[in-house]
Amino acid sequence: MKVTALAGGVGAARFLEGLIQAVPQDDVTVISNTGDDEEFFGLHVSPDIDIVIYTLAGAIDREKGWGLHGETYTALSALARFGYDTWFNLGDADMATHAHRTQMLRAGAALSDATRSIAAAFGLRITMLPVTDDRMRTLVDTDAGTLAFQEYFVKRRTADDVRAVRFEGADAARPAPGVLSAIAAADAVIIAPSNPVVSIGPLLAVAGVRDALRETRAPVAAISPIVGGRTIKGPADRMMAALGMRPDAAGIAAAYAGFLDVLVIDEQDAALASDVAATGVRPVIAQTVMRGPDEKRALAETVLRAVQ
Amino acid sequence: MKVTALAGGVGAARFLEGLIQAVPQDDVTVISNTGDDEEFFGLHVSPDIDIVIYTLAGAIDREKGWGLHGETYTALSALARFGYDTWFNLGDADMATHAHRTQMLRAGAALSDATRSIAAAFGLRITMLPVTDDRMRTLVDTDAGTLAFQEYFVKRRTADDVRAVRFEGADAARPAPGVLSAIAAADAVIIAPSNPVVSIGPLLAVAGVRDALRETRAPVAAISPIVGGRTIKGPADRMMAALGMRPDAAGIAAAYAGFLDVLVIDEQDAALASDVAATGVRPVIAQTVMRGPDEKRALAETVLRAVQ
Question: Along the 308 residues of chain B, how does pLDDT read in single tens digits?
Fold first, then answer.
C-alpha cells in the first residue's frame, strides 16, 4: 500500500512516526512544506523538511521537542559576535545539515536532490520531497506589518494578530519532480495534523497540487490538528479564527473540502461530526492525541483503516 | 612608531603577541598570507588570518596551540554523515567566523573587508590585511603529486617529499588596498618567524610586494624561524633543504636578501652570524625561543631596538 503524506513540521513529524510503524518506509512518500524556508548566516534552512527527517531518524531532541539530541550551540553564540540576529536556534549539528544543503544548491542541485541526500544520510528509506524546488515564502500580514513565517513564529512567538497569509512565489512555483505522481499513484493520501493555513496551505498554493488531490483515485484523509477547540501546538486555532475560518475540526474539513474524503477528528470533538459531514467529508472519530509510540501507530492504523 | 609585519600562521602569531605588548595596536599593521586559504563545506577558511586574530585576541586554545578555547566540534562530526572529508579540524565557533567571512564575500565584499570585520569583532585594534583580495593558492609539488597546502600540511602531515612550491594565481593577484602603503610608510617592517617558503613566499609572490620591501625607507628585519638547525614548529627546515636552500639562519638571510637589513638569529646559532653577514644582512643574536609572554615581549623589543 503506497501512502503519500502532505506534511508541515512538528505535528506532521509525530504522526509520521506512527505511519512508518504501520507502513514500510519504502512505501511512504512525504511531501513537505517549504514556505518556511529561510536563509540564516548564508545557510539555506528548511525547517519542516528537517524536523520530519530528524524525527523519523530518531535524532530529534525529545526533551525540547525540536533540534537534534546531543546538540551544541557554539556556532550560534559565536555568530552573535559578528552582529547577527540569533533568535533562530540553530544548533551546530543542525548547521551541518544546512551547510550540506547550501553546498548542493550552490553547486546547482535542486532542493529535492538535497532533501533526498539528507534523508538518506539520516538512514531514512521514505521518499522525502519538498513540494517545490522553486523559492516560495510564507508571508504573514500582521498588525505589526508583514513578517516572514519564521519571524512571526519563532522571533515574535506568534504574538501578532494575523490579517492575512500569503505565499510569495507560489504562483510561479512548479511542483518538484515526483510530487504530482506521488499523489496520483498513491493508494492513500494523508494530510498530516498540521496547520491548514501555514503548513498545508503552501502545498495547496503550488500549481497542480490541489488539482492532483482532486483527481487522484486514492482516498484523501486528514487528521484534524485542532482538538477540543485548541491546537496541540502552534497558532493554528488563533490563525484560523483571525482569517474567518472556524477554528475547529469543521473548519479543517471546510479548508480541505473539494478533495478531502475523510477527516479523523478526536473523541473530544465527536459533537462536531455532523458539521464535518455537512462539508461533504466523512468524519471518523478516534483518539488523536499522540502521547507515545503506541498511540502514534494506532492513529496511523486508524487513518489507514478509514481509507481502505 | 608604525610597525608593519609580514606574517604566516602560528609562529607569526606568537611573535605578534609580543609585538603588541611593545607597540600600541593602533600602530601595528599585519600583512597576512592567504595562500593557505581553502574552501571547506562551502565556507571560505583563511587559516593564517584567523590564527593571528584568535591568538592576539586571547581566544586561542593554548593547550592545543590552535583553535578557539571552549570550542566544540559538533558540526564537523555531523558533516561526516554527509560524506565530507573532515580531516581539517574546524570547530563550531571557528565555523561561525568562516560563515561570516563567506557571507560577506558572497555579498560582494573583499577579503580585506571581511578580515577587518573579523578582527574588529575580536576586539583587535591592529590593522589586519590579507596580502591580496584575489584568489591565490599555495600548491606543493610532492612525490605523491601536487597538493593544496592544507592537504600537504594537515591531511598528510607534511609526510611527502617536496619538489617545488608554487603560488597559483599570484601572477594576477594585486596587493590588497593598504598593503603597499603599509610597507612604504612604516617606521619598521618585520618579517615574523614564519616559513620563508610557504608562509612568507606567497606574500613575496604578489606583484609589487617585493619591490615595496626593497624600496621602503624603513629598515626591514626578520626573525629566523630556524633555531639550532630545526624549525620550532612545522616543516620549514625539511622544505628548505628539499628546495636546495640552506635550512638554517643563513638560508633565511639568503631567502630575503635584496630587501632584508637585519636578521635576528638565536643564541644557539651564533656561529652562523658570519654566514648571515656574508649575504649582506646584519645578524643580531638574541634569545628567540618564546616560552611565555615575557619572552615574547623581549623578542619584539630586541627586534625593534635592532632597527632603530
Answer: 999 999 999 999 999 999 999 999 999 999 999 999 999 999 999 999 999 999 999 999 888 877 899 999 999 999 999 999 888 889 999 999 999 999 999 999 999 999 999 999 999 999 999 999 999 999 999 999 999 988 998 888 889 999 999 999 999 999 999 999 999 999 999 999 999 999 999 999 999 999 999 999 999 999 999 999 888 778 889 999 999 999 999 999 999 999 999 999 999 999 999 999 999 999 999 999 988 899 999 999 999 999 98
Query: Which of A74, A83, A100 has the CB atom closest to B92's CB atom?
Result: A74
3-state SS assignment for residue B56: helix
CA B269, B300, B28, B307 torsion-angle sign: negative
Q: What is the DSSP string of B115-172?
A: HHHHHHHTT--SEEEESBSS--EEEEEETTEEEEHHIIIIISTT-SPEEEEEEETTTT
Question: Taking CB atoms and an 8 Å limit, are A41 and B76 in contact across chains?
Answer: no
Q: Where do the structural domains in chain B lie, given as residue ranges?
A: 3-133+175-306, 138-168
Chain B residues with CB inside 8 Å of A92's CB? 72, 74-75, 78, 92, 95
B102 touches chain A (CB under 8 A): yes
Q: Which fold has domain A3-135+175-228+248-306?
A: Rossmann fold (3.40.50)
User: Is A117 at the interface with chain B, CB within 8 A?
Assistant: yes
- Separation of alpha carbons A137 and A116, rounded Å: 21
Helix (H) or strand (E) holding B190: strand B188-191
* Contact flag B75-A82 (C-beta cutoff 8 Å): no
From the list A72, A81, A83, which residue is nearest B74 (CB)? A72
B83 contacts A75? CB cut-off 8 A = no
Q: Is A108 an 8 Å CB contact of chain B?
A: no
- For B96, the closest of A78, A96, A122 (CB atoms) is A78
In angstroms, the separation between the Cα of residue B257 and the nearest Cα of chain A is 41
Q: Do A93 and B99 touch (CB under 8 A)?
A: no
Q: Per residue, what are the HEC states of B275-299?
A: HHHHCCCEEEEECCCCCCHHHHHHH
Residue B199 main-chain phi, psi, to 5 deg:
-105, -50
Helix (H) or strand (E) holding B11: helix B10-22
Shortest Cα–Cα distance, A219 to chain B (Å): 37
**Predicted TM-score (pTM) of this structure:** 0.91
Among chain A residues, CA nearest to B43? A99
Q: Judge whether B108 is closer than 8 Å to chain A, CB to CB.
A: no
Verify whether the Cβ–Cβ distance B41 to A100 is below 8 Å.
yes
Unique residue bearing C-alpha cell 612604516? B186
CB atoms within 10 A of CB B210: 15
The architecture in CATH of the region B3-133+175-306 reads: 3-Layer(aba) Sandwich (3.40)
Which segments of A58-139 does DSSP mark as H helices, in order?
74-80, 92-106, 111-121
- Specify the residue for cell string 531514512: A124
Nearest CB neighbour to A79, from listed B71, B83, B99: B99
C-beta atoms surrounding A111 within 10 Å: 24
Question: What are the helix (H) ranges across A243-292?
Answer: 249-256, 273-278
Start-end of H helices in B178-272: 179-184, 201-205, 209-215, 236-242, 249-256
